[in-house]
Design goal:
With 492 residues, the protein is mainly beta. The chain is 9% helix and 46% strand. The chain has 4 helices and 36 strands.
Length: 492
């Protein structure tokens, strides 16, 4: 009898679901794709991404129904209101059967008592995997005073976010410039600025804190980039200033008065450099090692009268040979991208880990792109020499800091396109030929999240696993265990 009753219950439940799924009478076809936020229409996503929850950008929406299906006949149906939240487990199961395929999203909404059907839109599921997650700084926009901030990590296949470290651990401090050795979460560099400041280094999971200012260098170490072998980290050292525009659409300008590049020898606790990286006639910054470890890319500009002539500051992309066995540099410097010849400047060169491309930010002048709405992402092909804008990724607002996934098939970047104020993380697929798909905003459990947050997502980086940084061990090291670095010149 129990089995009989259970069968009847299943039959009633099935009939109820079928009844809800039947064709509605009087449904009006809009003939257009829905206006949703975030805009996920036609994006390419990895198989393991969290559900693409979205909000319908129509007033007076009382009910909505979403059917998602793939070409194999697998589907899921969601009923909601204006905010569409897709069940995590059902979404994961559908993605598992859709790798290399596409999903079709069929959306109907009830507005003021009438039903409307939008044209279905596709979402493409790449067969290229993506890394475990992202690390980023969350910071409230400001100019002088540090509010609460921290470096956080987020799983990409869920909505779980955890703090790696927050500045509440060190009162009044700033945390910035976190960097990983080709997405390896066990090898990380992180700066803590303030009275208890230092450069925190995770090296194969072992933590130490460095005092990086020496009498030979301009400042503490700033912008980092790991050598693929793990024995070196390239840093810039910068004298930086910010100033405010009195009459300009741009609010603020941040620029360097001087800058050099130094290399940190991880095993020997030493900094070293060479004349081409420390020339008084130029400002060198934004270092990046090539994936084979035999070259160092960096940006360089002539020194000018600042801040009056800041619009004359134009950085080019250069390259110098590097021998990782001896730690010696080559004698000549090559120009890879001559941006100044086209009256532009560039920042943040980031080589793809397969060695094929260098992504960078191009804008009108200076070196701090985040306050430049015209800043766009460009791609340099190391095989063909072709230099092109990543049109699919760019907008009329700032596109700035970017980094590659470990397999070089995904890129994450910061953009102000949503509201012109806050930087938000977008992810895009880039194929082996450098063609970029439409980017998607990092999914959140609540589609209203980006309207309610007071924090910018700063310096997004892919990570291959969760970062394990014990706060008690970090506090002890920052307070008591600083390692003072030494500097040595190398002009071989």
């Amino acid at each position: 009898m129990k089995g009989f009753h259970f069968s009847i219950l299943l039959s009633i439940l099935f009939l109820g679901i079928s009844s809800c799924a039947r064709e509605k009478s009087g449904v009006q076809k809009t003939g257009t794709h829905p206006d949703i936020f975030p805009d996920y229409v036609g994006v390419t996503i990895p198989e393991g991404i969290a559900p693409l929850n979205f909000r319908i950008e129509w007033d007076s929406v009382r009910h909505s129904e979403l059917l998602i299906e793939n070409s194999k006949g697998k589907s899921l149906r969601v009923r909601a209101g204006q905010a569409m939240k897709i069940p995590l487990d059902e979404w994961k199961h559908l993605l598992e059967t859709s790798k290399g395929d596409s999903l079709m999203f069929h959306l109907e909404v009830n507005r003021n008592g009438a039903w409307y059907r939008f044209s279905p839109f596709p979402v493409y599921i790449s067969s290229d995997p993506i890394d475990y997650g992202l690390s980023y700084r969350l910071i409230a926009p400001g100019y002088e005073i540090y509010s609460k901030m921290g470096i956080y990590q987020r799983s990409l296949n869920s909505f779980d976010q955890d703090a790696i470290v927050e500045n509440t651990l060190f009162q009044g401090s700033c945390m910035n410039c976190h960097s990983f050795r080709q997405t390896d979460a066990e090898n990380m560099s992180l700066h803590i600025r303030g009275s208890q400041g230092g450069t925190v280094l995770l090296n194969d999971g072992n933590l130490k804190v460095l005092d990086t200012k020496t009498k030979e260098t301009l400042s503490n170490c700033v912008y980092p980039y790991w050598h693929p072998g793990g024995n070196y980290i390239a840093y810039s050292v910068n004298k930086t200033q910010q100033t405010f525009h009195s009459a300009n659409p741009k609010r603020i300008e941040v620029f360097d008065h001087a800058s050099d590049i130094v290399i940190f020898d991880v095993k020997r606790n030493k900094l070293f450099s060479c004349d081409p990286l420390r020339s008084g006639k130029n400002m060198e910054t934004f270092p990046a090692f090539s994936p084979d470890g035999k070259s160092l890319f960096f940006c360089s500009s002539k020194v000018d009268t600042l801040p009056l002539q800041v619009k004359n500051i134009k950085y080019n992309l250069l390259r110098i040979d590097f021998n990782p066995e001896s730690g010696k540099f080559g004698s000549s410097v090559d120009t890879i991208v001559n941006a100044s010849a086209s009256d532009y400047t560039i920042s943040f060169p980031r080589p793809s880990y397969d060695g094929r491309f260098i992504a960078y930010t191009r804008f009108n002048y200076g070196n701090f792109s985040i306050w430049h709405p015209e800043a766009d992402l460009w791609l340099y092909d190391t095989e063909t020499g072709i230099n092109k804008p990543l049109e699919a990724l760019n907008s009329d607002q700032t596109e700035s800091y970017h980094s590659w996934s470990s397999n070089s098939r995904w890129i994450v970047f910061s953009s102000r396109r949503v509201n012109g104020l806050y930087t938000m993380p977008f992810i895009a697929h880039i194929d082996a030929d450098g063609n970029a798909a439409k980017p998607f905003l990092l999914p959140q459990e609540d589609p209203d999240f980006y309207d309610m947050t007071f924090y910018s997502f700063n310096v997004p980086e892919f990570i291959n696993q969760p970062v394990n940084m014990n706060p008690d061990r970090l506090e002890e090291a920052v307070n008591n265990e600083h390692v003072q670095l030494r500097f040595e010149e190398r002009n071989d």
